[in-house]
Structures are given as structure tokens and as C-alpha cells.
């Protein structure tokens, strides 16, 4: 709050103090929400999806990708002559005569099918070996899932150590690099021909050391924000432990996005199958028509909107579940609802699908403008420098705008789950909330980046080790290499796919954990603002009768995190 007020002044909106509670501020009041918000956006989305399905069916029925680049010879040339690359005409009849004389024989005919049989036999044995041992991938996927959940559980106890050790190691590395450059530069000063290079290296080392000192100063000034981020991650670990099926929603929606991608690839293939004939020196070649590219462009916009809608649904489910968990005060004996994830899904279907469609539509529009800017930048490379510079600036602006809008939309989804308002009101409050807490958001993102990086390295190292241990135990002298247990041909593919699957599983868990942290941060910040505004007036009957404002519950919720930060600090 201090940093935002000094930079932005007082234009950061009013604190949010109108969150509705029930049963004496024990839980959020979800039952008071009525009707679907932003119905027009939902209707537009459903119509767009329907049109996309119709377009896919029509394209698949008229597109003929097998005819793409099909070549036929015109009859206008004598003896069906065609032009060779050298510019000379070559008769097709002459080719047939050469085949009959044995001077123009295909590889398959000359080898009498031997090469094809050898390749086919190896491929068959490789596939059989892979299918026989594919169960190893499922075992390793379960191990990756256990390791991922274990890592998140360990974060509750060791996240503070991981964050601070990573920060200290990073600062130490910066100083070591700077000192090494200065030492190398001083050594080069001994040689007359390398003096200029030596001075340059010394200057680079000095700059790196200055950057290290600035980093230390920034970390010292941000120590409270870092401790708050650590505590929020511990709370997120507790939330995921209380709701272990939350990452499954992320996995299901990611699977849905993969299916949508498959349909989009199908649309591309069959759109390119809508061809037009072009004549090249007497040869007719079927190439994709201009209509194909227009259809692909329209399909890409629809696909982007659907994928972003699925991402928004995932974020809303996590935000709703995290909010319902956060505002239940377990220290007073309040219990979390029996099925918080299913309740959140139900609320989204009843009230918030239109708002999700609105948020994903805005990001889709900006994403489309960004891709148009990328296309213009590629075209501008052939033009003058001024046009290219202008297009690059537009592309940079679109990329920055897309990231900003995506982050605002995320916070709007969280506020929407807490307060039950429509997307536009939630977006306005999300912007003001980000202005009031933007420095904490930056620090939280950096801390979350450290945890994500460590988690990815953790799962990569361990799943690689277990992959070799399970698939090739002969490397560890546990089994004999001639054993039927060991896949002799496809072992490398099994290890590669197992590592990729492990990283995907960890990515899903980290995504769920990261957005849970963001959701709890917004809940905490709103909770803190409500206590600052009304905590001293908890006895005010008017506030209680209105159904707004925190009582002792909010004060305890805010105080728990604050007290943990103070104790750990």
C-alpha cells in the first residue's frame, strides 16, 4: 500500500468492504446470488461454438486433402512431354521405355522388396516391444503424480527455506560472476594487445556487482512482501491438502483443450484440401485456395476463444474453491462444505459462465490483434525501415496489453467468485486492487517463479532417475540386459515419454497451486481491507444488519496470516 500510494497517489479506488457473509460472518453468502451474469456474452459464445462446429463439418465434407499438390499433365504438349528442371522436355513415353529396358528402375523393384521387408520387420518389432512395455509409462506417471503432490506438501514446511536459499544462491552467483570478470579483466591488462578488452570486461564485472548490490537492497526492502508470499504459499498448501481433487479439474480442462486442438488441426488439414488448380509449364498442380486461409483464420479465432473459455472455467473453479476454503475459519470449528469443488462448478454453471465468456472474448480479441501485428511485422521486413519499426512497436504494445488484460481478468475472476458480481464490475475492482497492491503482486510472482522452477527441476531429476531404474535396471546392475523384462528396442522412447508426461503432470499441479496462491492473496487482501475499514466497528449494528463488513471472524483470519509472518520474520 505504501509503494502504490507514493507512485500513484490516491487514485487507487476504494477498499472493498461489501462482501456478503452469512451465519454471523462464518461463510460467504453464495445462496443470495441469482440469475446468470453477462447473458449476452454467453449466448454469443454458444452461437460462435455452434457456427464453428457447422464450419468444421462442412469443411470436412468438401475438403479433399488427399488431392493437395496433385499433379496432372495437360494434353497440349506432343507425346505428353513435360518440362524437366533443366529446361529440356522429357517424354513420359520415354520414361516408360526406360523402365522396360531396366534403365529406370525403382528402389523397391531393384532390391526385390528386401529393404522394405527389413524396415517393416524392425518397425513391427519396435511397436510390439513398445506396446508390451507401455505399462511402465503408467507406473511412472503415478510416481510423477505422487512426487508432485509430495513436493506441494513439503512446501508447507520448507517453502521458506527454499525461497531464501534460492535468493541467496542467486545473489552469490551474481557476485561470483562479477568478481570472476574483474579478475579476468585484470589479468588481460598485463598484455598490451588485450588492454581494451580487459577494461571492457572489468567494466562489465563492475556493472554486474552493482546489479548485485541493487538486488540486495531491493530484497531487503521487500522482505515483508517475501514473507507474506511464503505464508500465502503455506496457506495454498493447506487448501490443496483440504481439496486434493482440485488439480483433477485442471487436468480435465487441459484434456478438453487438447481435444479442441485436435479438431483445429483437422480443420486446418481439410481447409487446405479446398484446392484450386494452377498451371506450371503445362502441369496442373492443385494448391490451397485463398478461401482455405480465410477459413483457417476464422477457425483459429474460434479455437482461441474456446480454449481461453476453458482456461477461464478452470481459474474460476480454483478461485471459487479457494475463496470458500479461505473464509471458513477452522479454528472456531467452522467446517468446509462437503463438496466445495462440485459446489463451485454448480455456481459457475448457474451464475458465471457469461462472465467467463466475456473475459475470454476480450483476451481473444487482443490475441487476434497481436497475431495480425505479427503478420504485419513479417510483411514489413520487405518494406522500408519506418514501416517495420511501426509494426514492431504495435506488436510490442499488443503483447504487453495481452499480458496485462490476462492478469486483470484473472483477478476479476477471483473477485467475481468472492462477491458474485458480473465481469465488468469485478474487472473495475480488480484494476483498483492491483493498483493498491501491485508491488506485492510483483514480489509474489517472482517468489512463485522460484517455486515453479525448483518444482520442475525436482520432478525432472527424480522422474528421470526412476525412468532408468524401472525401464533399464541393467544400467544399475539390478537385472541382466538379456531379460525379457527390459525393452531392448523402445526403451529410449519410453523414457522420453515418461519424462514428458511427468513434466506435464507437474505443470498441471503447479498451475493449480499457483492460481490457488493468487486466489488466496486476493482473499487475504480483501480481508485485510475489510478489517481496516470495519474491524474497529464490529459492534456496529448497522453494518451487521446490512450484511456487510467483517466481525471477529475476519479479524482472526487476517490476524492468523499476519501473526505467522511476524513469528517467521
UniProtKB/TrEMBL annotation:
UniProtKB keywords? Glycoprotein, Membrane, Transmembrane, Transmembrane helix
Q: What is this protein called?
A: Choline transporter-like protein
Q: Does the keyword Glycoprotein apply?
A: yes
Q: What kind of membrane protein is this, topologically?
A: Multi-pass membrane protein
Compartment list: Cell membrane; Membrane
Q: Would the keyword Transmembrane turn up in this protein's UniProt record?
A: yes
Main location group: membrane
Taxonomic lineage of this organism?
Eukaryota, Metamonada, Preaxostyla, Oxymonadida, Streblomastigidae
Give the residue spans that cross the bilayer. Answer: 40-59, 134-155, 162-189, 201-221, 242-272, 292-310, 447-471, 491-510
Q: Name one GO molecular function term.
A: transmembrane transporter activity
| Coiled coil location | none
Record's function text: Choline transporter.
The entry assigns this protein to a family as follows: Belongs to the CTL (choline transporter-like) family.
- What GO cellular component is one of the record's annotations? plasma membrane
Amino acid at each position: 500500500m505504501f509503494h502504490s500510494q507514493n507512485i500513484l497517489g490516491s487514485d487507487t479506488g476504494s477498499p472493498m468492504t461489501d462482501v456478503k457473509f452469512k451465519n454471523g460472518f462464518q461463510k460467504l453468502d453464495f445462496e443470495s446470488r441469482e440469475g446468470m451474469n453477462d447473458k449476452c456474452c454467453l449466448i454469443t459464445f454458444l452461437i460462435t461454438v455452434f457456427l464453428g462446429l457447422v464450419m468444421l463439418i462442412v469443411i470436412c465434407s468438401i475438403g479433399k486433402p488427399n488431392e493437395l499438390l496433385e499433379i496432372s499433365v495437360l494434353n497440349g504438349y506432343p507425346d505428353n512431354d513435360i518440362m524437366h528442371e533443366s529446361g529440356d522436355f522429357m517424354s513420359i513415353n520415354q520414361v516408360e521405355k526406360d523402365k522396360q529396358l531396366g534403365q529406370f528402375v525403382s528402389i523397391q523393384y531393384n532390391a526385390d522388396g528386401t529393404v522394405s521387408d527389413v524396415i517393416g520387420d524392425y518397425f513391427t518389432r519396435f511397436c510390439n516391444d513398445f506396446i508390451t512395455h507401455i505399462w511402465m509409462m503408467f507406473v511412472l506417471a503415478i510416481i510423477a503424480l505422487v512426487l508432485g503432490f509430495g513436493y506441494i506438501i513439503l512446501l508447507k514446511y520448507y517453502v521458506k527455506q527454499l525461497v531464501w536459499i534460492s535468493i541467496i544462491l542467486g545473489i552469490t552467483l551474481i557476485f561470483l560472476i562479477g568478481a570472476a570478470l574483474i579478475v579476468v579483466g585484470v589479468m588481460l591488462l598485463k598484455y598490451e594487445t588485450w588492454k581494451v578488452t580487459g577494461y571492457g570486461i572489468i567494466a562489465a564485472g563492475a556493472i554486474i556487482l552493482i546489479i548485485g548490490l541493487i538486488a540486495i537492497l531491493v530484497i531487503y526492502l521487500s522482505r515483508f512482501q517475501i514473507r507474506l508470499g511464503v505464508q500465502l504459499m503455506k496457506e495454498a498448501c493447506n487448501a490443496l491438502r483440504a481439496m486434493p481433487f482440485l488439480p483433477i479439474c485442471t487436468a480435465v480442462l487441459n484434456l478438453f483443450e487438447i481435444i479442441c486442438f485436435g479438431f483445429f488441426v483437422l480443420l486446418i488439414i481439410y481447409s487446405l484440401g479446398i484446392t484450386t488448380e494452377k498451371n506450371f509449364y503445362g502441369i496442373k498442380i492443385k494448391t490451397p485456395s485463398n478461401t482455405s486461409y480465410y477459413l483457417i483464420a476464422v477457425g483459429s479465432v474460434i479455437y482461441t476463444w474456446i480454449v481461453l473459455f476453458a482456461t477461464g472455467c478452470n481459474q474460476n473453479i480454483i478461485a471459487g474453491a479457494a475463496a470458500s476454503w479461505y473464509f471458513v475459519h477452522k479454528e472456531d470449528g467452522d467446517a468446509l462444505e462437503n463438496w466445495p469443488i462440485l459446489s463451485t462448478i454448480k455456481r459457475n454453471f448457474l451464475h458465471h459462465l457469461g462472465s467467463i465468456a466475456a473475459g475470454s472474448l476480450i483476451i481473444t480479441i487482443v490475441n487476434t490483434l497481436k497475431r495480425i501485428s505479427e503478420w504485419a511485422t513479417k510483411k514489413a521486413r520487405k518494406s522500408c525501415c519506418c514501416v517495420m519499426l511501426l509494426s514492431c512497436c504495435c506488436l510490442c504494445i499488443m503483447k504487453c496489453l495481452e499480458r496485462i488484460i490476462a492478469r486483470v481478468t484473472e483477478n476479476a475472476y477471483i473477485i467475481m467468485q468472492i462477491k458474485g458480481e458480473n465481469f465488468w464490475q469485478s474487472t473495475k475492482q480488480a484494476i483498483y486492487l492491483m493498483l493498491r497492491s501491485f508491488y506485492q503482486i510483483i514480489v509474489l510472482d517472482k517468489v512463485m517463479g522460484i517455486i515453479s522452477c525448483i518444482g520442475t527441476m525436482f520432478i525432472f531429476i527424480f522422474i528421470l532417475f526412476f525412468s532408468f531404474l524401472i525401464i533399464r535396471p541393467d544400467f544399475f546392475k539390478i537385472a541382466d540386459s538379456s531379460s525379457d523384462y527390459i525393452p531392448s528396442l523402445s526403451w529410449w522412447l519410453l523414457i522420453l515419454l515418461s519424462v514428458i508426461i511427468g513434466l506435464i503432470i507437474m505443470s498441471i499441479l503447479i498451475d493449480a497451486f499457483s492460481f490457488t496462491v493468487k486466489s488466496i492473496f486476493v482473499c487475504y487482501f480483501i480481508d485485510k481491507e475489510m478489517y481496516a475499514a470495519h474491524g474497529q466497528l464490529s459492534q456496529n449494528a448497522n453494518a451487521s444488519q446490512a450484511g456487510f463488513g467483517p466481525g471477529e471472524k475476519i479479524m482472526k483470519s487476517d490476524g492468523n496470516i499476519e501473526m505467522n509472518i511476524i513469528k517467521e520474520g
